[in-house]
Amino acid sequence: MENRRASWVVPATASFALVPAVAGASGFALLEQSASRLGTAFAGTAAAADDATTVYFNPAGMTELREPEGAVTASGIGIGSEFRNGSSVPAFAQPLGGNGGDAGDWNFVPAAYFVLPVGDSLAFGLGVNAPFGLKLVYEEGWIGRFQAMHNEITTLNLNPSVAWRINERISIGAGIDYQRLDAELTNDVNYSAVIAQAVQQLILGGLPPSTGAAVIAANAAKSGRARVRGDDDAWGFNVGALFDLSDSTRLGVSYRSSIDYEVQGTIDFDAPSGNDGLSNSIIAIASAPGAPLSSGPVKVDLELPDSATLSLQHRFDNKFALLADVAWTGWSSVQELRIVRDTGATVSVTPEQWRDTWRYALGGTYAMNDRVTLRAGVAFDETPVPDETRTPRLPDTDRTWVAIGARWQPSPALSMDFGYAHLFSDTVPLNQDAGNAAASALLNGEQHSDVDIVSAQLVYRF
């Protein structure tokens, strides 16, 4: 048994992907860094430059702020994501299970910014936000439990920036991003399949078939839990430029670099007890140090994507302005996600084959008076996930945004912004067995997701 253990535990190895779930933008990016920008469906992000949140969207816009300014934003993202079974097939010796319920929930995304102008041409800024994240959590015992259960990733980004006005028409800016990532992913492991394959190997070595069949039957519906936790710190940068093409038209461009992580953490297996001595021996060997289902240190290399945005703002008069965005995100950096032990052995490989995406947004603002400004916008956001590699950890889909918002300025020093958006999503196919249906089940059906976003922001000018 010691010599054969590597061959018979392969089908039940945990299947992980270091991505969380449905987020506000494509993949698991979070655009929700500003209530003022949410109101126009994030149209004009690199050109508007009307508050301190420009630190994130285009640091060159800091030169448009004439006095020290701080902004605090709180966004709530409500995700609804439900699996609808088609013709799923249970894993070996396991019940099929349910549909997983609504895997989404409300999540809180904070952000804060500060800008300090120095003279007429120089400005410094600092942003603190979460550019990637969110989670999905499925109900216990659902059909896809051997592929995904709890999926969560969080990031914290610190972004000091500087901007310089070259002349009356052109400003440039740049920033450094220090980013921390934390992730936790879990799924069930089919120990009935582990026991069955080990018994088959032992039968070839002389175990009576009747004894083997009895052991397999006695250990049906045996499952445990695998959990990966990890974190890492990494660095990136962002740059931008602002061009006043005329007194009424402004063009903004911005770029955020990719960020390379080597996520260090652990994998832990919570194995069940067998119903007889032989099955307990099989589980013990599979869980022994160095075995495929042993707990220990692991790492994952992950490159979060770069992005580029081109924005336009045109003011028709003192009341109405039109805003537009075209944004690109380099999600093709995610081609596979491989979990590796500190020994170099691979725990699992999940093919992703993501593709780059485009986002298009159009919005407008209308100043009712000196204190109240109304906003509205629409957007279309592509998904990077092909149908062929979509998993229950990230059942991502194209999204259409419809957003409204408002600004209330009770005094020259204080303004408050509010925004709301609903994201309409396609119902997408989900056909996944994680490379082995006996170990992980065949998950066959559709996933439908919707997102609601509410955001409030307080801006104070010193």
Give an overview in words.
The protein is mainly β and 462 residues long. Helices cover 11% and strands 50% of the residues. The chain has a single domain, classed as Outer membrane protein transport protein (OMPP1/FadL/TodX) (Porin, Beta Barrel). It contains seven helices and 20 strands. The chain has a 14-stranded antiparallel β-barrel. Helix 4 (191-204) packs antiparallel against helix 5 and helix 4 crosses helix 6. The N and C termini lie far apart (73 Å). Residues 1-12 and 17-22 have low confidence and may be disordered.
Write the layout of secondary structure elements.
Blueprint lengths: L4 H4 L26 H4 L15 H4 L11 E17 L20 E13 L3 E8 L3 E5 L12 E16 L4 E21 H14 L4 H10 L4 E22 L4 E8 L2 E12 L6 H11 L8 E9 L2 E9 L4 E10 L6 E6 L4 E6 L5 E11 L4 E10 L17 E13 L2 E12 L2 E5 L4 H4 L2 E19 L1
Helix pairs in contact: 4-5, 4-6
